[in-house]
Design goal:
about 210 residues, alpha/beta, 8 strands, about 45% helix, globular, binds BIS(adenosine)-5'-pentaphosphate
Length: about 210
């Protein structure tokens, strides 16, 4: 039986932050479609080159590119005990693809991290990420010990290119149109658990713990 967790929610709801904590607690890998895409952009792969213009505009990258990337990851040896998905699936086509690789024996839980638009715009403007290891910080809530420097690897902290108000609002609108329909999709499957995204991490993990034991 694999432990499969999907973190659904709008940009900035805390999928990456909570996912990273859960990955340490449950000892299963966190797979972030956004991070995989950014890695491909950085390495100038064919997929990365195709994806970049969509990411810069705050739009979704075409399903075939993302699906191929995720399929390759979840079928690996590291995922045999389970995995946590951050940012995938984001469309019904992606959800249907995922269904094909989940079996009845797997334990699937979908957590929906909920927060309002203005709160998220404000939160994302203060996000910084390590350009080297990807660790996520917040200038006010989760600041690094030394300004501009990653606590984990000493890398330089940067602001994501798509974390400006105009693009954040575009991402929120794309989320509402294309990803929000997945809430009903997973509600119907009986594996859907809403949790507040605008609260502290400890409380968010506490909510998840009501469903996933550790
Ligand atoms: P992606 O990287 O997935 O971005 P996103 O969904 O917009 O989500 P974010 O990473 O912005 O937010 P998050 O919820 O992970 O929040 P975080 O934990 O960082 O996607 C980027 C782009 O890639 C997309 O626009 C699209 O183009 C493409 N893409 C990706 N996946 C795709 C797919 N499946 N299909 C097609 N295209 C795809 O937290 C945010 C901030 O809040 C941080 O500063 C953090 O420190 C802080 N914070 C978080 N939680 C808390 C808390 N509880 N208390 C205090 N502060 C907190």
């Amino acid at each position: 039986m694999r432990n499969i967790i999907i973190l659904l929610g709008p940009p900035g709801a805390g999928k990456g932050t909570v996912g990273s904590e859960l990955s340490d607690i449950l000892n299963i890998p966190l797979i972030s479609s956004g991070d995989l895409l950014r890695e491909n952009v950085k390495k100038c792969t064919v997929s990365g080159e195709k994806a970049q213009k969509y990411m810069d505009a705050g739009e979704l990258v075409p399903d075939d590119i993302v699906i191929e990337m995720i399929e390759g990851r979840v079928s690996g040896e590291k995922c045999k005990e389970g995995f946590i998905l951050d940012g995938f699936p984001r469309t019904l086509v992606q959800a249907e693809m995922l269904d094909k690789i989940i079996s009845d024996k797997d334990a699937l839980n979908v957590f929906y991290l909920k927060a309002g638009d203005d709160f998220l715009v404000n939160r994302l403007s203060n996000r910084r990420v390590c350009g080297n290891c990807g660790k996520i910080y917040h200038l006010v809530n989760i600041p690094p010990k030394k300004p501009g420097v990653c606590d984990v690897c000493g890398g330089h902290l940067v602001q994501r290119q798509d974390d400006n108000e105009e693009i954040i609002r575009k991402r929120l609108s794309v989320y509402r149109d294309l990803t929000a329909p997945l809430l009903d999709y997973y509600k119907k499957k009986g594996v859907f658990y809403p949790i507040p995204g605008d609260t502290d991490i400890k409380r968010m993990l506490g909510e998840i713990k009501k469903t996933v034991q550790w």
